[in-house]
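Task 17 of the worksheet. Students: predict the tertiary structure of the chain below and write it out as structure tokens. Keep your answer in the requested format; marks are given for formatting as well as content.
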Amino acid sequence: INAEYMGPKALSALISHMLYERRFGPYFTEPVVAGLDAAGNPYIACMDLFGSECAPGTFVVGGTCSDSLWGMCESLWRPDLSPDELFETISQAMLSALDRDCLSGWGASVVVVTNDKVISREIKARMD
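Model answer:
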């Protein structure tokens, strides 16, 4: 680790403090922080607009369709998915949630981070 490295846990704490500092005039965002720590272990966390952090270690959801995402993610996700299986699981959950929520966008960016590469793909949802 060099002096310029900030792990995902430290970044999550920084963002959480920044959001809490603005709690009376909040930024209207629900950030998701995902990455690998220095030992190569995965870390994922999300926050609400006040900076309250949720880091369960399995999966997190955020945004306008988060209620729809919870149900799909709980039914499709399982431990030790391969990168391709994880992409398919994320894509199916996102498409299902995006179809149910009129405020969500026309698609999503799915990013799968492994120890040796980052896979990024775009999925398109309904556009009406």
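Marker's comment: Residues 8 and 96 are 28 Å apart (CA to CA). Residues 83-100 form the longest helix (18 residues).
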